[in-house]
Amino acid sequence: MSPFRMDGEGPDLRGPALGCAAWCGALLVLAVEPRTGVGVVAAAVALVGSAGLWLARRRRTLRTVLLVGALVASATAGSALLRTEEASAGPVPALAAQRAPVEAQLVVTSDPVPLVQRFGGGVRFGATLLVVRSGAAAARLRADVLVMADESWSGVPLGSTLVVRGRLRSSPDPRLAAVLSPSGSPGRVTPPGLLWQCAAALRSGVREAVAGRGAPQRDLVPALVDGDDVGLPAQVQADFRTSGLTHLTAVSGTNLTLIVGFLLLVGRAVGVRGRWQVALAVVGIVGFVLVARTEPSVVRAAAMGTVGLLGFGSGGRDRGPRALGLAVFALLLVQPWLAVEVGFALSVLATAGILFVAPGWTRALARWMPRWLAAALAVPAAAQVACTPLVAAISGQVSLVAVVANLVAEPFVAPATIAGLLGGVLELVWHPLGAAAGWIAAGCAAAIIAVARSSAGLATPALGWGTGPLALVLLTVLCAVGGVLAGPLLARRGPTLLLSAGLVVVLLVPRPTPGWPPSGWVFAMCDVGQGDGLALNAGRGTAVVVDAGPDPVLMDHCLDRLGVRRVPLVVLSHFHADHVDGLPGVYAGRQVGAVEVTGLGEPPERVAAVQRLARGRARVVAYGETRRVGAVALEVLGPVPGVVQHGTAADEGSGPNNASVVLLAEVAGVRILLPGDVEPEAQRVLERTLPGLQVDVLKVPHHGSRYQETAWLTSLGARLAMVSVGADNDYGHPARDLLAALAAAGMEVRRTDLDGDVIVVARPGGGLAVSTRR
């Protein structure tokens, strides 16, 4: 039986139809000049969906639905026009265009977030201007701005009011009236109201309850409870993205459903009934929004979570769809910019999948398995199928492991979330009680992290998919047809188990990579994201590994593709996470010999982690030493003894970077310079101590940072410059000026963010070739 029945016994689809109409109305205004591909995808889905739903209703209701739909679309279109005009009108945009100095009274509307290094440090946060003075003129208004300030503003609490002096400039975001750069430190700050102070205390209590637990689980618990993901390692976030668990680390309807559902259960246990249950739910929803912050993404998550609660309650088949349509309309009326946001589209699609697809799949699976297990399988699968086309449009991938990962992680999500919340509450009463609840929450969070890491480490956790119109249309059709036809298939045990077994094989068995690595390869730069993971071919399945990147899974997969089974030597240039955190991937299923490191043991926690893996035998390299490992000849060129190991670059200068082990490698006559992350100060020392150095291949230092001794790099005579860098990284790497200088010096530039794995191949007669694999 199809979950999309349109007869009189099917769900009432008038609410979703009006929600689609509301979405169309907002998009008519906001997506005329599409700011992202989300607007185009959402517009197509909304138009097709609304037309189909309208025409599916009985003829006598069609006229009414069309009329109300037109009114709803007009309302959201009008709201979008008003918001657009509001952001571009008034004195603030005019003052911003002049970069005028102003004195302003403002209210802080979001928590300060650290700026990435390319902006020079500091913090950013949202605010609403209430009063603006420029010269003798003053104006009272309400204008949303982005504040970009120095580190002294990092403690400004959400909801506080303050008067600042600074300079306005225009914002590229059409939702904002301007960007405000205050001068100096914050002066007198009027503290936020009592509700905001209570919310801040609870957020702080959640963190305090798990402070004594190990990382990264202590950082995941606040993300599960209220979306506070500050400090969550980039590697954990990457594992969650690959395994389809990202929704757990952000404020989503799942958070609200678990927390409010738990609150209702407690209320029922103490005798709360009837309308008081509704009142308790409202209190829980409002409290959740305050604790997680009243930003549009939080309000959207709260609305979708409320829809989910209605959908699972009595009469949910009718109330859920009606609530979904009403929630979409209300959200777009208040925040029309949500119509072109990815998060909003994913929330709506996931909720729609749960409401319309999951019930039919649950009934089908329940014919041959327990109903609770059928629901546990059907709900995440339906949400994933509904979101798949949009996820593919964003990431270029179709996740294969998401449903399995969500199913395995699900038993730990609720205990981690509820125990984390209780820990925060109890922490305000007595620390031992809060710590006890925090211990439970952190243990469950550790299990979720293990599921994410294991899922991301499977042979084929996702399939690459095109992001062009034809590819996305095909995927949308496949998902729609699959949603309709899967019910009869899932009702039959044999075909379902056979398809499940096939999926397991795809997930576990690596795909063949014919022709990789190419014959005669000498050096490989692995695509490990924002970091270095390098391999030198020592012959017959053996390689010298120099740095291991930030991701053990990516490093392991790269070495697997290269056919590396034995690593007699690992050299770690320095102890930053983007060079050493992937070391467990080198050890995965391989025989590993010596580990050699730099002499500067910073940061100490990563030194300890490396020593644990190396069983305490990691050795500090000696300047000037040479050695041969199979076909690889190595010479240590740095760090030069006696050099002051501190950076002068404003970007990310540090002792560990300038203390990088610098290697000159030679394989099959190809000379390769591996300088780690040395910065200009150390590069100048190398230039003085190595006059006339010439190489064939240059691994560009520090991922192509703009802080380089460019004249020295271009003097090396390399034919090939290789940049190991993560796509869309927050540091602005690699710098365009540096790439232009390298190209002007006659070097062919290859980079992992564009090319994937990059391999250098030695050709007879001294020639070089490059092969890449994404």
| Global mean pLDDT | 83
CATH architecture of the domain at 521-773: 4-Layer Sandwich
* C-alpha termini separation: 41 Å
Helix content: 40-55%
User: Which geometry do the CA atoms define?
Assistant: globular
The CATH superfamily of the domain at 521-773 is Ribonuclease Z/Hydroxyacylglutathione hydrolase-like
For the biggest sheet, the summary is: 8 strands, mixed
Round the Cα radius of gyration to an integer and report it. Answer: 29 Å
- Spatial strand arrangement across the major sheet: 15-14-13-12-11-10-23-24
- Tally of separate helices: 26
Question: In the CATH hierarchy, what is the class of the domain at 521-773?
Answer: Alpha Beta
Protein name: ComEC/Rec2 family competence protein
Organism: Nocardioides jiangxiensis
Subcellular location: Cell membrane
Keywords: Cell membrane, Membrane, Transmembrane, Transmembrane helix
